[in-house]
Design a protein that fits this description.
With 350 residues, the protein is an alpha+beta fold. It has one domain: Chorismate synthase, AroC fold, CATH 3.60.150. It is built from seven helices and 18 strands. A five-stranded antiparallel β-sheet has the order 1-2-3-7-4, with helices on one face. Strands 9-8-10-16-11 form a five-stranded antiparallel β-sheet. The protein has a two-stranded antiparallel sheet with strand order 5-6. A hairpin with a 2-residue loop joins strand 8 and strand 9. The radius of gyration is 21 Å and the shape is globular.
């Protein structure tokens, strides 16, 4: 399935080394002024940031094909493309018949009987560029409602951000190449990434996302719970291996007396929880607090180190993956997490 959403729908298309990647956004109301600056900024946030990022540099100039008139949405499908201009197909010539460990080569071939050898095809993170554009449009839809979404790197390898969620300085997120909003922690992450890159290896990490400005009462139980929709969105992102919200897996070792958020009337006269260990959600419905969730990302499977694997004939091979790959996908995944969260919230508000 290449379509996501119910009322706000996004269909993605294109392969890593094809002519372009792109998408169609359907269900967006008419009359919304398209903020090209926001789209360009979000795409810029997804681009490589340092020596430990991929050397592939795409211009990512979005071309809109339909759904707009004088810069405003028409209410009809919004189609767009981002042309692939920096492909190096030759990088994959020597491994065309080899199943790369940690990649979807074998599973795609098992599913379809064929696969795009160059760059991983649809399984490549290149596909997420289209998600960022669609997410920017979703942000334009929810922004007038006072809803804000901020994602940031909270962990790379063993280096973790030890700043409470409520004290994170969002203005610093995109000032740091790691997308970690604390300068000291970001420098520690950079040092780790440089070390891993020199060893021709890769490393994973985590992205935290905070959605603020949501009213209480948003969500559709039982099978349309907000956390279920967010989990589905995040787990669709390349290399995402885990999702948790609120206290998440830490809840497994807590007592109810530690976990429960007590209720009280706030200064505005509204009844709401005093704390937010629930992560802004109860029964799959927003409770008025910020939604806070985290996504775990695996190490990039493309590494320079020698690996044992086999080819399509079952003959064992010694594989060294060359080409241009990220040492860690987490910094570039931050904007993608924001985009997918924006689409979920836009869909719910519609």
């Amino acid at each position: 399935m290449n379509t996501f959403g119910n009322r706000f729908r996004f269909t993605s298309f294109g392969e890593s080394h094809g002519a372009a990647v792109g998408g169609v956004v359907d269900g967006c109301p008419g009359g919304i002024s398209l903020d090209m600056a926001l789209i360009e900024e979000d795409l810029e946030h997804r681009k490589p940031t340092a020596s430990w990022s991929t050397a592939r540099h795409e211009a990512d100039q979005v071309e809109f094909l339909s759904g707009l008139y004088n810069g405003k949405t028409l209410g009809s499908p919004i189609a767009f493309i981002l042309r692939n201009t920096d492909c190096r197909t030759a990088d994959y010539n020597d491994i065309a018949d080899i199943y790369r460990p940690g990649h979807a080569d074998h599973t795609y071939e098992a599913r379809y009987g064929i696969r795009a050898v160059n760059g991983g095809g649809r399984a490549s993170a290149r596909e997420t560029a289209a998600r960022v554009v669609a997410g920017s449009i979703a942000k334009m839809l929810i922004r007038p409602r006072g809803i804000q979404i901020h994602a940031y790197t909270s962990q790379i390898g063993t280096v973790c951000l030890n700043v409470p969620d409520a004290e994170v300085d969002y203005s610093r997120i995109y000032q740091e190449p790691t997308r970690c909003p604390d300068h000291k922690t970001s420098k520690e992450m950079e040092a780790l990434l440089d070390e891993v890159r020199k060893n021709e290896d890769s490393v994973g990490g985590a992205v935290t996302c905070v959605i603020s400005g949501l009213p209480a009462g948003l969500g559709n139980p039982i099978f349309g719970k907000v956390q279920s929709l967010l989990a589905a969105a995040m787990m669709s992102i390349n290399a995402c291996k885990g999702f948790e919200y609120g206290t998440g897996f830490a809840s497994a070792v807590m007592h109810g007396s530690e976990l429960n958020d007590p209720y009280a009337k706030d200064a505005a006269g509204h009844i709401s929880p005093l704390s937010n260990r629930a992560g802004g959600l109860l029964g799959g419905i927003t409770n008025g607090h910020d939604i806070i969730f985290r996504c775990a990302f695996k190490p990039t499977p493309s590494i320079g180190r020698a690996q044992r694997t086999c080819d399509a004939d079952g003959v064992m091979q010694q594989l060294r993956i060359r080409g241009r790959h990220d040492t860690c996908v987490v910094p570039r995944a931050v904007s993608v997490v924001e985009a997918m969260a924006a689409m979920v919230i836009a869909d719910l508000t519609l």
